Amino acid sequence: MFNIVEKDLRERIKEVAVEHFNSNGYHGTTIRNIARDVNCSLPMIYYYYNNKKELFDEIIKKEYFDLLKRQAALLRTNNIIDFYTKFVYDLNSLSNYDKKVYRLGIKVYLSFDGDEELMEIMDEWEKTILPRHYQILKPYLKNADNDLAIVRTLVHLLETLIESIVVKNRFLSEEEIREEISIVLHGCE
Amino acid sequence: MFNIVEKDLRERIKEVAVEHFNSNGYHGTTIRNIARDVNCSLPMIYYYYNNKKELFDEIIKKEYFDLLKRQAALLRTNNIIDFYTKFVYDLNSLSNYDKKVYRLGIKVYLSFDGDEELMEIMDEWEKTILPRHYQILKPYLKNADNDLAIVRTLVHLLETLIESIVVKNRFLSEEEIREEISIVLHGCE
DNA sequence: TGATAATCCTAACGAACGTTAAATAAGGAG
DNA sequence: CTCCTTATTTAACGTTCGTTAGGATTATCA
């Protein structure tokens, strides 16, 4: 009746699971510990999720990819360097939950967790990355010979910056982000 | 007596352990499976290593950091772009064992495995990275205002390239490596 | 050869795991 | 009030885990 203050149990389970999978990996996470932190009984987790793997998969397939798409949708601006700087800088203020989902996704992306099925989904997504950034950068690129290399380098740099913020949980200032992106995109303004 | 063909059992255990920790993570790896693949009895692993964690720690503390130091020692040349290109390119031909040790180390570095003690060792090493590359790049840097940013960007790019080769197990051609490094180090020749 | 130390094995321990059966509680519909 | 669905619990199943006790085998060398 007055269950407004308390989130849906199913959702709370998922949130705690993100925390645990993040800190202890798939095999290091136990349903019992999740239940303890959620403050519910152990079988309740089986009431909402068929098994451990299904819980993990839902986090990656829904939460992580939703997050990626939300991030990708942000991408519009006039100045290309401002644009990418803001894109990375805003990751600093991602919610803790989103950061952990992101981190977990990167873990699967690097084959540090998850299984082959999830990896295939990751590969599919990865194929879209370079073309997408190429489209964004196209109007700003000048000489045709190393255009693709610039896009590749930028994507590589973005990867490390994202990793720093999301995985290593560091704060990167707008200035240092801008400096590095400017070095790769020098001449593109 | 004629044990020449067969490697030291202790060493073989470690090699198989690298394989398992790599594929399944710390918690996903079982002593029993290691023993099976080594073709020895289960308690033999406890004969050479006090417990599972000690086995894992030895791989990171000895094998991984030995590898990092071996790699860092390679760094001398005339042309700075050639130099870094070769540095990355040569990772392609690392032995499978070394690649797996490297991968495992990165996993710990990103806090995806291991514990806090190992993380501290990682942090110590990390502090040496920027100064070391700054020393190497110093003679080639020109204007003082964004010198440090160039070093940082290069180190970040190197990180992703290393991850591509070692973690994602991709082959990167010398040309694409050179292109990306040249973009970051444009003007430094 | 025979003692001593280094290797190696079979067998088992207790604990923790993923998962499920079965019962109970709560809440609205008729 | 009864019935039925949904939500939740206690208790346990079988399995696998890390680890160890205790004995067997093999090498070393006086």
So how many helices of chain A?
9
The number of domains of chain A = 2
Run of helices and strands of chain A: HHHHHHHHH
**Computed Rg of chain A:** 19 Å
Structure, described:
- Two copies of one chain form a homodimer.
- Chain A is elongated, with a radius of gyration of 19 Å.
- Chain A has two domains: 7-49, Arc Repressor Mutant, subunit A; 60-184, Orthogonal Bundle (Tetracycline Repressor, domain 2).
- By secondary structure, chain A is mostly helical.
- In chain A, 71% of the residues lie in helices and 0% in strands.
- In chain A, helix 1 (9-28) runs parallel beside helix 6 (96-109), helix 4 crosses helix 6 (96-109) and helix 5 packs across helix 9 (174-184).
- The A-B interface holds A 24-28, 107, 110-113, 146, 149-150, 152-153, 156-157, 159-161, 163-164, 167-168, 176, 179-180, 182-184, 186 and B 24-28, 107, 110-113, 146, 149-150, 152-153, 156-157, 159-161, 163-164, 167-168, 176, 179-180, 182-184, 186.
- The structure holds a DNA duplex (30 and 30 nucleotides).
Secondary structure topology:
Two copies of one chain form a homodimer.
Chain A (H helix, E strand, L loop, with lengths): L8 H20 L2 H8 L3 H7 L3 H22 L6 H10 L6 H14 L6 H22 L9 H21 L6 H11 L5
Helix pairs in contact in A: 1-2, 1-6, 2-3, 4-6, 5-9, 7-8, 8-9
Chain B binds a DNA duplex (30 and 30 nucleotides) through α3.
